[in-house]
Amino acid sequence: MASEDVNTRSESAVSTIVNLAEEAKLAREGVKAPSQQILSICKSLVAGGFAGGLSRTAVAPLERLKILLQVQNPHSIKYNGTLQGLKYIWRTEGVRGLFKGNGTNCARIVPNSAVKFFSYEEASKGILWLYRRQTGNEDAQLSPVLRLGAGACAGIIAMSATYPLDMVRGRLTVQSDKSPYQYRGMFHALSTVLREEGPRALYKGWLPSVIGVIPYVGLNFAVYESLKDWLIKTRPFGLVEDSELGVTTRLACGAAAGTVGQTVAYPLDVIRRRMQMVGWKDASSIVTGDGMSKAPLEYNGMIDTFRKTVRHEGVRALYKGLVPNSVKVVPSIAIAFVTYEQVKDILGVEMKISD
């Protein structure tokens, strides 16, 4: 028995030494052990989720006003511009009205942002590997076009994974104190839509969302990373003293990225938001606030929604809510990018987005 115990302990010690040796070898080769990889992934997801939640909460009133402007009935205008709209919400619904739907929005944006940032990093690594293999240049770096592709992949994955929450958030957001409440919260809305409209209803507006997210998220990442690279390489106006950009400069890069992305993709955001309201019997009265809609929401697909919107309301209708969205997107994207990188620094994750 004593001999067996000694043998068991010897085998255990040898196994431990072998495992440590393998981890040391992986570390020398620049490859992380599985446990380290999992921890790094978790930290990256936490950083992305925190960045998304913080950035969206900071601009929640503008987010709600944007959606209300997008779907309001043209025959009964309640929200006429950014300042007037915010004042109207404050007067009729109070402070809580300004943040209505933000809980659901954060419940959606936290996993969405986590998946989006992580997917971008993984897509970037995969695309860079293929690019280097194709060109035979091991020192090649991602071009703006390749970054656009990686960002588009990340946007599609994140959008598809969390789309039902976005659809429900849109409906919760347009409810007001004067409208007949149909949904009491996120889970009640999900169950109600499933029961009354079926599972497919949770993905109404998915196609224009995916089409819109390709230029939106793709341009966000491509512009942000390309601007950072350009600033580090050229160092204009003495903005960059070393290889790292300051928080203010990164905020400016994020703001520029958000401005370009949202301007290109905004019409598709209007279309998908209107499609999300289809099938909701109280949507028209909720949007107009008078209980007597003159133009019920009767859209049959993305093309039909686009055609009817332009025919009845003109091309300008495709940009309803653009001003509050611009005011919202610029700081939101900037805060999200900088927060993501700062949280990863705090958590000790070595890889940055541009790496």
TrEMBL record:
Solcar repeats: 39-126, 142-230, 245-346
Primary localization: mitochondrion
Topology of this chain in the membrane: Multi-pass membrane protein
SUPFAM superfamilies for this protein: Mitochondrial carrier
Entry's localization field: Mitochondrion inner membrane
GO cellular component, one term: mitochondrial inner membrane
PROSITE patterns (UniProt xref): SOLCAR (PS50920)
Gene3D superfamilies per the UniProt record, alphabetical: Mitochondrial carrier domain (1.50.40.10)
Keyword annotations from UniProtKB, A to Z: Membrane, Mitochondrion, Mitochondrion inner membrane, Repeat, Transmembrane, Transmembrane helix, Transport
InterPro entries per UniProt: MCP (IPR002067), MCP_dom_sf (IPR023395), MCP_transmembrane (IPR018108)
An individual GO BP term: transmembrane transport
Keyword Hydrolase attributed: no
One Pfam family it belongs to: Mito_carr
Similarity section: Belongs to the mitochondrial carrier (TC 2.A.29) family.
Protein name: Mitochondrial adenine nucleotide transporter ADNT1
Organism name: Escallonia rubra
